[in-house]
Design goal:
The complex is a heterodimer. Chain A is mainly alpha-helical. Chain A has 15 helices and 2 strands. Helix content of chain A is 75%, strand content 1%. Chain B is of the alpha+beta class. Chain B is 47% helix and 12% strand. The longest helix of chain B is centred in the last third of the chain and has 36 residues. Classes of the chains: A mainly alpha, B alpha+beta.
Chain lengths: 360, 507
């Protein structure tokens, strides 16, 4: 049984922060160096696919309103369910590792500041562990304030970038080929970690969840497509060369005497990464806590933090790590946890119900 | 009145528990006097005035400096006159006692006690007691007359259009100041004694129909856990009213020296805790946004009050973030600073011997030392310290090229911003230093990480089931009408405005 501790707007807040963190790293390198302008269509298709992917999770939740995915796993699959819960814990941790590795690439290749990345990474993870231990409620409340600030800044950046748009930069869709469409969908879906997170968060949530999820999906669509539109309009073909074109576009934004608003955006992005890590560390520890029947998740959070530091520092060394870090693996894991597991659980439940019905 | 005193001071939780071990008053005057002498251990301030009322030995006992001598003399005169006009039908001390209690001594603040401990407590709060040989109870006269500070405007919470009254050190005066403003029988005072050595009286003040009973019970439970020996100020019990294990820099217990502010909070469903010998009332539950409120906000036009609050919030962020951002940007992200400004900063700080972070930290330490010395010294010397510190040291250090002028300006701006919200001085001073270190070591990333940690810490706080950051996050439009902005009185008075109605509240 889970307590209803967060509201639907808070849930949307958490998901939006997650999406903002991901969208910042979106670029042509994420879609095998194809044209990012075509990804507007990808985001539209992902918008529709997301609704389809959510269906099993929503039905599962509708039938078990107060149980999260780990509880349902155990209820339907018994002891085997615990293994599935551990897989969910692994997925949340993997999502954290992806975020951090992107952050690392970004810091080292774009910013290259005169600070030690190890110190930065360790401090982010230590403080994220602290926030994770404070609970979902605290993360959601803090997230609302950070999201407000981020949106405020985004609006400023959008306004200042709007006048820099060169409409000749927009080419017809699929001018070269259709590859960017599929790659865009692949990228966006592989980072759709919000749906597995729903499995843990929906039972804690009160309010009109359906309405909330529809709103969130629309907001994601708007965010992605507006970002792609602005980046293409401002940077043109440069957007296909740059590793992080969204960041490059924000660096062109200026308000009065204050130039290079990218630094400010970077700050809020860091806050977003921090909150995402806190959330996913908390969810991962909750999955493990329930699987191992522990009362407190604080030690688990601490251990997960250590694992995160180790994996992010030695990711280049191990071949196994490189395999795990392959986007195809993340895509498989996302689809597995977001869609396949809930679907399988629903089917098993349906079959067992059918078997239990007495013969006439 | 004396009955009220008894009600307030004796029907308390601590005393109810100790009634079991109380010693009954004995009929022998000698034994009674022996008890008090033993309790005071030959203390110089114990006054025992032995008198003879007809054939019976009697004594009036009080503590020097705690009683009004004129009133006490009047009482003694009345009793002595009774002795002179004695009527022969009174045959024993019990009848004599009854005659004095019911007819002769027509003093309004009069009661009787049957236990030595109760009599002792009465003496200690400034009453005089009459003990008659052969009688197993004691008459108590409320003749308190100790010196008290007059009611004046609190220096730490000045108001332009509010009342000029502030709390004083005497608990009963403070209770009367509240009662005078809320002429409603639902206003309730509950008193208990805390502090095993000082046995300080603490009064819980609330409106019966506005506070959830669970909150009152929780407050009593937490206060009972307060096991410190001496309570000299309300700040001693403040940590006991916080959530258990709360290590936050910010306090969710509000403070005020103004009766009008406290009454406003009580009407909104909060609970005030008054401590004897302290002019500061504690207010629970308290929200973060209330640190930016002032009693004048409610006397002004709403748009100006709202503007004031927004300025205070901006001042809060300036006071904690500005030095950190200055150090972080100038060291790691100079591209964010306008080029003309950056030139001036680099010109000013380029020739100084310390790094920007160290320079800012040194000036902050100097500022804190100067502030502390100015605060504790006599006023005249305090001014001298300000002049020496501010003008001589500051100016000389810049001219000598030890520190940069922009750094001095940043610290000065930060200090002025801090004074806008004096109740938040302690967390601001600490956070400012942390932000300088974060900005100086990790740049904007460090500042943002620390900012988010502080934010999570603030958001995780709740006291008595009400989130500390409500109604901002969790957001509630209803609560927002008197938070960052203040709406008009017409809007404010439309619905019952209770703290328990805040978003995220468990009630």
């Amino acid at each position: 049984m889970n307590q209803k501790i967060i509201s639907v707007p808070q849930l949307i807040t958490l998901f939006m922060i997650n999406r903002l963190v991901i969208s910042m790293t979106f670029g042509s390198s994420s879609i095998n160096n194809h044209n990012i302008w075509d990804c507007i269509i990808s985001s539209l298709l992902v918008f529709i696919i997301t609704f389809i992917l959510i269906i099993p999770m929503m039905i599962l939740f509708k039938n078990n309103e107060n149980l999260d995915i780990t509880d349902i796993n155990e209820k339907i699959l018994g002891k085997f369910g615990k293994i599935i819960s551990v897989i969910y814990a692994f997925y949340f941790l993997l999502s954290c590792t992806y975020t951090l590795s992107n952050f690392k690439i970004f810091i080292e290749s774009v910013i290259n500041p005169p600070i030690s990345f190890l110190v930065l990474l360790t401090s982010i993870i230590i403080f994220a562990c602290y926030s994770a231990a404070k609970g979902i409620n605290a993360i959601a409340r803090a997230g609302a304030i950070i999201l407000f600030l981020t949106f405020f800044l985004l609006i400023m950046i959008y306004i200042s970038l709007f006048k820099l748009i060169d409409f000749t930069n927009f080419r017809p869709f699929f001018y070269e080929n259709y590859n960017s469409l599929t790659d865009g969908i692949f990228f966006m879906l592989s980072r759709m970690s919000c749906i597995p997170a729903m499995g843990m968060l929906l039972p804690m949530c009160f309010g009109n969840i359906k309405k909330g999820i529809i709103t969130w999906n629309f907001l994601v669509l708007f965010l992605m497509s507006s970002m792609i539109f602005l980046v293409t309009g401002v940077l043109g073909e440069l957007s296909d060369i740059k590793l992080f074109p969204i960041y490059t576009a924000t660096s062109a934004a200026k308000i009065s005497k204050f130039e290079n608003l990218d630094s400010l955006y970077l700050g809020l992005w860091t806050a977003g990464i921090f909150l995402k890590l806190s959330l996913f560390l908390n969810l991962s520890s909750e999955c493990l806590r329930k699987s191992f029947g522990r009362k407190s998740n604080k030690i688990i959070i601490f251990l997960l933090g250590i694992i995160l530091i180790i994996t992010n520092m030695f990711v280049k060394i191990s071949n196994i790590m490189s395999g795990i870090f392959d986007t195809r693996f993340l895509f498989f894991m996302t689809i597995f946890t977001a869609f396949l597991v809930p679907l399988i659980l629903l089917i098993i439940k349906k079959i067992s119900k059918f078997k239990q019905e007495p013969e006439i | 009145m004396l009955k009220d005193i008894q009600k307030f001071f004796f029907r308390t939780e601590t005393n109810r528990e100790s009634t079991r071990s109380k010693i009954k008053v004995e009929e022998s005057l000698e034994k009674t006097l022996e008890f008090f002498q033993k309790e005071f251990d030959g203390g110089a301030d114990l006054i025992i005035r032995k008198i003879k009322i007809f054939n019976s030995d009697a004594a009036i006992i009080s503590v020097d400096g705690m009683i009004n001598k004129d009133i006490t003399n009047d009482i003694i005169k009345t009793i002595v006159n009774f002795n002179l006009n004695f009527k022969p039908q009174i045959s024993n001390p019990k009848e004599l006692y009854g005659e004095i209690r019911d007819k002769i001594s027509a003093f309004p603040d009069q009661s009787e006690v049957f236990y030595y401990e109760d009599a002792l407590n009465m003496i200690l709060i400034g009453c005089a007691i009459l003990v008659i040989d052969g009688q197993d109870s004691i008459l108590v006269f409320g003749v308190q007359g100790f010196e008290v500070r007059s009611i004046s405007e609190p220096t730490s919470e000045k108001s332009q259009r509010g009342s000029r009254e502030g709390f004083v050190e005497v608990l009963r005066f403070n209770m009367a100041l509240i009662r005078r403003r809320i002429a409603n029988p639902k206003l309730k005072f509950e008193t208990m004694q805390l502090g095993s050595t000082t046995r300080t009286y603490v009064s819980i003040c609330y409106m019966n129909d506005r506070v959830e009973p669970e909150i009152i019970e929780e407050i009593k439970k937490r206060l009972k856990k307060c096991d410190i020996k001496s309570i000299m100020t309300s700040g001693c019990i403040s940590p006991y009213l916080e959530e258990e294990g709360d290590l936050s820099l910010f306090s969710s217990v509000g403070l005020s020296e103004r009766p009008d502010t406290v009454c406003g909070k009580i009407v909104e469903g909060r609970v005030a805790i008054l401590v004897d010998s302290s002019p500061t009332a504690l207010i629970v539950p308290y929200l973060f946004i209330e640190y930016f409120h002032n009693i004048d906000d409610y006397a002004m036009k709403p748009y100006f009050a709202s503007l004031n609050r927004i300025f205070k919030i901006i001042a809060f962020f300036i006071s904690i973030l500005l030095p950190g951002f200055y150090v972080g940007f100038a060291t790691f992200n100079p591209e964010l600073i306008p080029s003309e400004l950056l030139n001036k900063i680099s010109l000013a700080t380029g020739s100084t011997p310390f790094s920007l972070m160290l320079e800012t930290l040194i000036i902050h330490f100097l500022y804190e030392i100067l502030r502390e010395s100015g605060l504790r010294l006599p006023q005249n010397l305090g001014h001298a310290v300000s002049i020496v510190g501010g003008l001589v040291v500051g100016d000389a250090a810049v001219n000598a090229g030890l520190i940069g002028a922009p750094t001095i300006m940043i610290v000065a701006l930060t200090a002025i911003s801090t004074f806008v919200i004096p109740n938040l001085y302690e967390p601001i001073a600490l956070l400012r230093l942390l932000f300088i270190i974060a900005g100086g070591t990790l740049g904007i990333w460090g500042i943002m990480i620390l900012f988010t940690v502080v934010l999570v810490n603030l958001c995780s706080k709740s006291n008595f089931g009400i989130p500390f950051t409500s109604p901002i996050s969790p957001f509630g439009l209803f609560g927002m009408r008197d938070s960052i902005i203040r709406t008009s009185w017409k809007t404010l008075s439309k619905n019952k405005n209770k703290i328990q109605n805040m978003p995220g509240s468990v009630y």
